[in-house]
Design brief:
Layout lengths: L2 H4 L2 E7 L1 H13 L4 E4 L1 H6 L12 E6 L3 H15 L2
Antiparallel strand pairs: 1-3, 2-3
């Protein structure tokens, strides 16, 4: 297996700047490095960003961390929807 493809960036969450900030912080506190994609759009035009839709800000993690990150994101979403 090609090691370069193992660390391929993978989107794990998309939402507004506020949501993305919280989820990114939770991921990083769990030891998962994450970065934002389309952050400028969320900053310049926050009214245009819709969670998971066009213009949303995305969190990207390494493909190696995706499964763990997805569990953390799912847990976050469950707690927010209570």
């Amino acid at each position: 297996m090609d090691r370069q493809n193992d660390s391929e960036p993978t989107e794990v969450f998309a939402g507004s700047m506020v949501e993305v900030g919280m989820v990114k912080s939770i991921l990083e506190n769990s030891g998962i490095q994450a970065y934002l994609k389309d952050e400028m759009m969320g900053t310049l035009s926050p009214w245009y960003t819709s969670p998971g839709g066009a213009g949303s800000v995305k969190i990207v993690v390494s493909h190696l961390d995706y499964k763990t990150a997805r569990i953390i994101v799912d847990d976050y979403l469950r707690n927010v929807r209570r």
